[in-house]
Design goal:
The structure holds 2 protein chains of 2 kinds. By secondary structure, chain A is mainly β. Chain A has no helices and 11 strands. Chain A has strands at about 5, 10-15, 20-25, 30-40, 45-50, 55-60, 65-75, 75-80, 90-100, 105-110, 110-115. In chain A, strands 2, 4, 5, 6, 9, 10 and 11 form a 7-stranded mixed sheet that branches. A 4-stranded antiparallel sheet of chain A has the order 1-3-8-7, with no helix packed on it. In chain B, strands 2, 4, 5, 9, 10 and 11 form a 6-stranded mixed sheet that branches. In chain B, strands 1-3-8-7-6 form a 5-stranded antiparallel sheet, with no helix packed on it. Chain B has strands at about 5, 10-15, 20-25, 30-40, 45-50, 55-60, 60-65, 70-75, 85-95, 95-100, 105-110. The chains are: A mainly beta, B mainly beta. Chains A and B meet through β5 and β10 of A and β4, β5 and β10 of B.
Chain lengths: ~120, ~110
């Protein structure tokens, strides 16, 4: 149980285009999902918290108009990188929170590697 | 502010030896401490977690200890195997907040 998927696993796009990444909780419902960004050999940086049916909460320094998040259902959250530029190239990872044992346990997706040319 | 320090950044051990990774946190309100294993090109995988109402938790070769007074927690891997080689991240969070703050990661290499 507690499987989270991401699609696509890899994407290459041209500068100026937009890219959508999907995050799905396959066997549980997740009221809350999270989006992280990870640079090579670095730790995970939380970008935003996505709550089903409401606006996402962005971390300081993350542009909400640049990284659009939609959490339309209890099993799906999407991250759209708008007008992508080479500096947006990174490994994007989502997680979904499963309520168990009195707290939320985060289960992570496999990640999406974005390369902007 | 919230901060988690993780040491060492790299760790090389001989197969069969034990490995210990330590994390120190600053937020007194933190009460949830998970450990994640990340293999190259993949997402983090939860391997063990501990909540503040216990001091130690064990799952086969993996154990985590928590010292709330000193604000540090450690991951212990015994009888290491080459497939344990990966990057390990500690994290801390609060029940009242869903956010996890991650450590900087430890690259573990188990030499055959």
């Amino acid at each position: 149980g507690a499987v989270v998927s991401q699609h696509p696993s890899r994407v290459i796009c041209k500068s100026g285009t937009s890219v959508k990444i999907e995050c799905r909780s396959l066997d549980f419902q997740a009221t809350t999902m999270f989006w992280y960004r990870q640079f090579p050999k670095k730790s995970l940086m939380l970008m935003a918290t996505s709550n089903e049916g409401s606006k996402a909460t962005y971390e300081q320094g993350v542009e909400k108009d640049k990284f659009l998040i939609n959490h339309a259902s209890l099993t799906l959250s999407t991250l759209t990188v708008t007008s992508a530029h080479p500096e947006d190239s990174s490994f994007y990872i989502c997680s979904a929170a499963l309520w168990e044992s009195g707290t939320d346990t985060q289960y992570f997706g496999p990640g999406t590697r974005l390369t902007v040319l | 502010g919230e901060n988690v320090e993780q040491h060492p950044s790299t760790l090389s051990v001989q197969e069969g030896d034990s490995a210990v990774i330590k994390c120190t946190y600053s937020d007194s309100a933190s009460n949830y401490f998970p450990w994640y294993k990340q293999e190259l090109g993949k997402g983090p995988q939860l391997i063990i977690d501990i909540r503040s109402n216990v001091g130690e938790k064990k799952d086969q070769r993996i154990a985590v200890t928590l010292n709330k007074t000193a604000k540090h927690f450690s991951l212990h891997i015994t009888e290491t195997q080459p497939e344990d080689s990966a990057v390990y991240f500690c994290a801390e969070g609060e029940d009242s907040s869903y956010k996890l703050i991650f450590g900087s990661g430890t690259r573990l290499l188990v030499r055959p």
